[in-house]
């Protein structure tokens, strides 16, 4: 075992030990609470608190039910064996009522009814008939108090996660005081020498309340506890005044500090000692409040601060934390934007400053043809094809074919008597067109770049102003929808709200029944809710079970893709050399967007390979900086045109596959046709735009096609088809083989290999050749009930 594995194992064991310790501590607290509630006697006859506590814990903290059961039975044992039997019968009666499938009662009614029925039967048996009126009164009081106590405990004992995530309301605080008062009445017998546990706890709680909430909270605690204890014992109602005044004086002393609270809490007891001799203010009482004051002074400050933040959250601290987070977030965005600007500077301006610019030649103001005596013979009614020769010259000069250029120039020299001047004017005109094209595309590129930069800046400003509100609003909407569906999600975080790449984390309570899995709720209910809100599919990324700080599961959701792409690549160089002018790249921009790049450099040399690879690399850089594809295409065209090699350029076939909505976006700069095979149908995506670096390019327009599951996409370079054979025949043959093989059940690698072998058996590939084959299929979740099977399609 390595040191890292040993450390991870030790860390896991330590966490498990911590979880067990925490569970044992909570179980012990529930045991003591149940023990003292079982001994709490109201009106000196009714014992109404054990069954409500069992009902609440059995419902919300099932793993601690055994501690409550044992604590309640042991506590009742000190009141008599009969009370143990009564409590057991009441618990059994409650379980029977709750499990009755034809009549579902509220929990508070079920508890009250269980207490009432068992007491009626028990008292009827004990008195051998109708019990006395006083006994009936006590039975009714016990049932009523059980109902009221159940309601209070429902408010107090919320789900485990809400103890850490929700603020304490006044209703919850009042419920806690009622339950604590019931516990204090059950502790009356816990007196050790001069120490009384209930008086000690009462003093400690009043002082702590004064430190946390000053006069209002301390007074409320004293008044509520004093009233409830006095009513329960039917005596010592004068202690109400003592407890209330103690809370008032302790709260007033909170301005001085802890010692002011401790001294202020003792002064009312000293006053009533001399004022009312009937109160039980003896040595046990004063010893207990003195010990309580000392214990209060020893409580660490961090605990009081935590309780204060829970009861009275400091909004200023929350705003400061939010402001700090916002500052860090904006700083990160600004840094990313600066990197983008720096990239644009290096890509365009520095290259432009270092690129040489040729001087323009002198242009003769005289039109050679207009001043020539053979003008009518060449351009008039006796046109001998000079216009076609001029057009062919511009075309051959643009594509850079030396053999074709030499042939056209020879034809012009044969027909023109002033061929030298004609060639000079043609060169001048071509140069003028290139300069105009460069000027036009330079302006368009800068405009597009400014648009993208403006979008970046607008997005940044919008995030600064609205992102926190937007995320909070989205989280609030999702939380409300889950609440309406009665789904207990105590914490929800939207990590990313970008369409197609959303990430959401929900913290849920674990499964409560044996047949239910932790992912059942997420799959059956939460996924449809998220789809309804965002109108896009989601999937469960992972599920993590955790016991810290309480037992729960974290379910991570992310945007699901509807389609997936399998692809294969066939690439070969001319004469099997090391250098190929073709370059390609297939990659994911994010899980819902797949990018395809195919470039063909001019020729088969090392320079052609470098040109195409450089074009692919620059395009990937532009996409990584979130540049708009149209802007990227024009920018690369402009940059590539400023190189020193005047006759070097490269084609670029760029496509994006939207895996969420099934769309294909295609941009072509000199690229060949893209074929989409859909059964017997063939869809072609074409473009007339010139290669990147050729300045006569006018525009690069995007073509959009809708994809379906089972579609096959084929992209290729011009080396696939020979220049010797008929182009249309080669294309038809290639597509026929592709359609025939695409419908088989072979893997995509086998399909592409079979297509190329069959095609090469009829036609020779004489140039660098690259063929990309992509197959689009539906994504089927692993938990789906069925999975579609594609059958081969017959040719009939």
Automatic annotation (TrEMBL):
In the UniProt record, does the keyword Protein biosynthesis occur? Answer: no
Q: Does the keyword Transmembrane helix apply?
A: yes
Membrane spanning stretches: 29-55, 67-93, 105-125, 137-157, 231-252, 259-277
Please provide the record's keywords in A-Z order: Hydrolase, Membrane, Transmembrane, Transmembrane helix
InterPro entries per the UniProt record, alphabetical: Bact_Sigma-Reg (IPR052016), PPM-type-like_dom_sf (IPR036457), PPM-type_phosphatase-like_dom (IPR001932), SpoIIE_N (IPR045768)
Domain PPM-type phosphatase: start-end pairs: 564-776
Residues in a coiled coil are: none
What name does UniProt use for this protein? SpoIIE family protein phosphatase
């Amino acid at each position: 075992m390595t040191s890292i594995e040993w450390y991870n194992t030790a860390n896991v064991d330590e966490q498990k030990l911590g979880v067990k310790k925490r569970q044992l501590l909570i179980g012990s607290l529930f045991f003591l609470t149940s023990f003292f509630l079982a001994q709490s006697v109201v009106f000196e006859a009714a014992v109404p608190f054990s069954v409500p506590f069992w009902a609440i814990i059995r419902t919300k903290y099932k793993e601690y039910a055994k501690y409550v059961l044992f604590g309640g039975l042991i506590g009742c044992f000190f009141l008599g064996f009969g009370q143990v039997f009564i409590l057991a019968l009441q618990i059994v009666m409650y379980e029977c009522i709750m499990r009755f499938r034809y009549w579902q009662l509220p929990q508070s009614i079920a508890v009250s009814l269980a207490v009432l029925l068992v007491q009626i039967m028990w008292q009827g048996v004990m008195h051998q008939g109708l019990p006395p009126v006083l006994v009936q009164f006590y039975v009714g009081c016990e049932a009523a108090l059980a109902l009221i106590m159940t309601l209070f405990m429902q408010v107090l004992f919320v789900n485990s996660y809400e103890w850490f995530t929700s603020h304490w309301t006044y209703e919850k605080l009042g419920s806690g005081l009622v339950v604590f008062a019931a516990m204090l009445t059950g502790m009356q017998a816990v007196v050790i020498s001069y120490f009384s546990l209930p008086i000690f706890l009462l003093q400690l709680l009043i002082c702590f309340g004064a430190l946390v909430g000053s006069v209002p909270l301390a007074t409320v605690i004293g008044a509520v506890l004093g009233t409830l204890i006095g009513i329960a014992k039917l005596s010592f109602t004068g202690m109400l005044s003592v407890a209330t005044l103690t809370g008032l004086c302790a709260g007033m002393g909170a301005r001085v500090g802890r010692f002011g609270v401790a001294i202020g809490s003792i002064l009312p007891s000293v006053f009533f000692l001399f004022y009312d001799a009937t109160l039980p203010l003896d040595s046990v009482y004063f010893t207990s409040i003195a010990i309580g004051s000392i214990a209060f002074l020893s409580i660490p400050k961090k605990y009081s601060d935590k309780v204060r933040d829970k009861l009275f959250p400091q909004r200023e601290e929350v705003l400061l934390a939010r402001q700090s987070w916002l500052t860090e977030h904006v700083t990160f965005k600004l840094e990313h934007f600066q990197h983008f600007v720096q990239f644009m500077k290096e890509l365009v301006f520095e290259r432009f400053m270092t690129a040489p610019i040729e001087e323009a030649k002198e242009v003769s103001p005289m039109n050679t043809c207009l001043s020539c005596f053979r003008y009518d013979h060449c351009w008039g009614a006796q046109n001998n094809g000079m216009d076609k020769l001029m057009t062919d010259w511009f075309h051959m000069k643009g594509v850079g074919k030396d053999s074709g250029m030499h042939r056209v120039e020879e034809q012009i020299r044969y027909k023109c008597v002033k061929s030298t001047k004609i060639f000079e004017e043609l060169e001048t005109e071509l140069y003028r067109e290139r300069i105009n094209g460069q000027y036009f595309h330079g302006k368009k590129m800068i405009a597009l770049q400014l648009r993208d930069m403006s979008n970046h800046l607008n997005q940044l400003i919008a995030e600064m102003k609205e992102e926190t509100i937007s995320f909070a609003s989205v989280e609030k909407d999702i939380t409300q929808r889950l609440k309406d569906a009665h789904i207990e999600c105590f914490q929800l975080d939207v990590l990313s709200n970008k369409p197609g790449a959303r990430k959401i984390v929900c913290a849920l309570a674990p499964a409560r029944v044996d047949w239910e899995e932790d992912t059942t709720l997420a799959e059956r209910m939460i996924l449809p809710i998220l789809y309804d809100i965002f109108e896009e599919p989601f999937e469960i990324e992972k599920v993590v079970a955790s016991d810290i700080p309480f037992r729960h599961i974290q379910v991570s959701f992310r945007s699901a893709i509807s389609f997936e792409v399998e692809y294969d690549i066939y690439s070969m160089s001319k004469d099997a050399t090391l250098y190929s002018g073709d370059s390609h790249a297939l990659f994911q921009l994010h899980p819902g967007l797949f990018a395809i790049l195919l470039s063909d450099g001019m020729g088969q040399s090392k320079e052609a390979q470098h040109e195409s690879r450089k074009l692919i690399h620059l395009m990937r850089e532009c996409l990584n900086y979130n540049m708009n594809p149209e802007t990227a295409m024009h920018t690369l065209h402009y940059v590539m045109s400023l190189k020193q090699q005047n006759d070097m350029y490269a084609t670029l076939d760029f496509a994006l596959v939207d895996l969420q909505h099934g769309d294909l976006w295609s941009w072509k700069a000199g690229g060949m046709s893209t074929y989409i095979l859909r059964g017997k149908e063939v869809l072609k995506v074409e473009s007339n735009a010139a290669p990147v670096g050729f300045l006569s390019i006018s525009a690069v327009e995007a073509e959009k096609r809708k994809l379906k599951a089972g579609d096959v996409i084929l992209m290729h370079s011009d080396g696939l088809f020979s220049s010797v054979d008929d182009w249309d025949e080669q294309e038809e043959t290639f597509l026929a083989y592709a359609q025939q093989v695409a419908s088989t059940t072979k893997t995509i690698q086998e399909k592409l290999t079979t297509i190329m072998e069959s095609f090469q058996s009829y036609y020779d590939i004489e140039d660098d050749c690259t063929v990309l084959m992509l197959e689009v299929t539906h994504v089927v979740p692993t938990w789906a009930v069925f999975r579609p099977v594609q059958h081969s399609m017959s040719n009939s």
